[in-house]
Amino acid sequence: MDKSIWVYILLTLIIGGGAAILMGRNFAQNWRSVTNVVIASFGLALGVRFLHFALFQEPLLTPVGYAVDALTMIVLSLFGFRWRRTQQMTSQYYWLYERTGLLTWRDKA
Known about the structure:
Blueprint: H1 3-29, H2 34-56, H3 63-92, E1 97-99, E2 105-107
Antiparallel strand pairs: 1-2
Helix pairs in contact: 1-2, 1-3, 2-3
């Protein structure tokens, strides 16, 4: 496979994605809004782009590269946010909600 695929998997998905999931969970833990998560994801994507540039001599701010990294960070941080919010809602309000999946809950009958 092409070198850039491996770089994307290592830096963007594993390192940046792990940070994005943890960031989303932290924002949910502190009862922040989804808007804050999305805005912070753009900053995290800049950090990931810098790692691409510093470690693998890729262009720093290409529109396509930044868009791919930003979209990946947004999706993964929203995943972490929703994952933690589901845990919060079903554990803190156990008399109102029950878990229906990894990312969902519903009113108790």
